[in-house]
Amino acid sequence: QVELVESGGGSVQAGGSLRLSCAVSGNIDSSVGVAWFRQVPGKQREGVANIYSDGRTGYSDSVKGRFTIFTDSRKTTLTLQMNNLKLEDSGMYYCAAGRYVADGLGIHEYNFWGQGTQVTVSS
Asked: What's the Cα-to-Cα distance from 39 to each of 30, 92, 93, 94, rounded to whole Å?
C-alpha cells in the first residue's frame, strides 16, 4: 500500500510559477514509479510528468520545457515545479504511484492516487 498527499496548489496569473508537492509513504520499493496527472471537468485525466523506477523522467508535450518533476532519493516527496503557466494548465492535479510502470503517462499504470490539489491560472 502506498499513500499520497498533495499540497501546493493555488491561484496564479499566466506566466507565473507554482510548486506542487506530494508526500509519499507506505511500501515504497525499487519497483515504484510516480507521476503527476491533471484533470478538468468533463475531460479525461491526463498524464503530465512521471519518474520511472530507474529515475528516467517523461513529460507530456504540452508541459515539456516548462514543468520539472523530481523526487528525493527515497521517493518520499514528489515535486512538480511549474513555470510559465498557461490558462490551459488549470485543473485538479493528482500524484500517483504504481509498480513496474511501463507507460509513464498512462493512467492505467497507477493504482495509488492522492486526493488532488487545485491549480487555477488566470489572465
From this structure: 28, 5, 7, 8
